[in-house]
Automatic annotation (TrEMBL):
It comes from Emericella nidulans (strain FGSC A4 / ATCC 38163 / CBS 112.46 / NRRL 194 / M139). GO terms for molecular function: D-arabinose 1-dehydrogenase [NAD(P)+] activity. Residues 135-422 form the NADP-dependent oxidoreductase domain. GO terms for biological process: dehydro-D-arabinono-1,4-lactone biosynthetic process. InterPro entries: AKR (IPR020471), NAD(P)_OxRdtase_dom_sf (IPR036812), NADP_OxRdtase_dom (IPR023210). Keywords: Oxidoreductase. Residues 80-107 are annotated as: Disordered. Residues 80-90 have a biased composition (Basic and acidic residues). Pfam families: Aldo_ket_red (PF00248). This is NADP-dependent oxidoreductase domain-containing protein. The keyword Cytoplasm does not apply.
Amino acid sequence: MIAAFKSQEYLWMRRSHLPWFEKQQSSSIKHSSRHRSDWLFALTPGLDEDYFDGVMNTLVQIMYYPDTRSTLRQINDNKTSELESAERQRLSNNVPGARGTGPTMSWGAFTGSPSLDKRSMANPPRTPLSQLLPPLILGGAGFSYQHTQSPNVEQTREVVSRAFELGVRAIDTSPYYEPSEALLGEALSHPDFTTRYRRSDYILMTKVGRVSATKSDYSPDWIRSSVARSLQRLRTSYLDVVFCHDIELVEEESVLKAIGVLLELVDAGTVRYIGVSGYPINTLARVARRARKLYGRPLDVIQNWAQMTLQNDRLEREGLQAFKEAGVNCVCNSSPLASGLLRGEGVPIAALGDWHPAPEGLRRAAHAAAAYVASQGEVLARLALRYALRRAQHCSTSDVRVGTIMGGTTVAEVEENVTTALKVLQRSNGRLQWSSQGIGGWTENRDAQLDLRLSRDVQQILGKWRNYSFSDGKTERKEDVVQTKL
């Protein structure tokens, strides 16, 4: 719909439906559903009729009453503030969102003004993502050929349904995790799911830029096409978060241009929050600083993988402070098991083969650690997930929050992961939330103390491989060994 307002289709719409608009003018802009342009409404399946009518009424006023634009600007700003405040309150109180509460559309999206509104560039969303993102997020890579031999619709639907029943309310995926987006779109649009959950009940995150194991495309045209394709695959009218994916694999200038394109989409209401993802912490922090300087606003979120784990804690030691200095107050820690390294079964080998960047020495050390933990009556994967969640909670403050992205390719895995997470988190009103200890706390109980002892033993077993870095594509430090993540 927004595209129609910004292109020649907008002019065609005005010419071909001029009698309808004139009728609205003659009736003092009294708009009702019987006057709606059915062809335009059909372009936006699932859009609430009242919301649509409000948009069309606003268009009529803009077209015929130019003098009201300053007033409408103020109305739009006030309404945007009200909607974001209501959404923040709804999420904190676990109150289901009202039907038809779609993405907030900015003034630029209505008027066809220059695509990158400087007001939007200078002002991030009023409600920080850190106040909305839950502590545990379902990773969409589990529905890809990297992590399973045969990803399919039925299994994805079962996993997503069970995860939401257990309290999960956020999903992270990528076009690169083929065919994750399409499978998730099928699952999230299935009647059994939509009758229980509204789109506003959960956060949906995806990425742009990474195309395949050997190709990235950060051109503006591809970024726009990628987002449009993700919207279609995921069967949604908006994306809560879009990351530039694995930014260390391309030149930083390309990433900065892509961020500008994403800001256009934020301005249009297609995307709500934007960020960058990757492995090298120095690169992520540097791009965040440059983006803030270039666009006059910080990124909303940074995603880093496998560096708040039993094996590597560099995100906690160096990353969080560097990101905070760049103005970023929300961080996603993905791969708490170091992409499957920290488990008894060893690294995942699926349809695309053995892609894991861990060298043989580290794999042997992780296997020895798993055997030791098993001898103590525990499972390394469970210990590693609890460790990551406890560190995330310990590092989170009222200003900076760390969410953890967990895996799960089967219902059994998701059930085990959530059961494990509940040793640290709590479930309240059907949603997973931080424990009663509060942000920044460390649960001082017997289980936590046992975990602490086992964690220290595992880190001793890892020995020289503790804090070994998978330098992805570019080396940040001379001692880093360059590896390639699929």
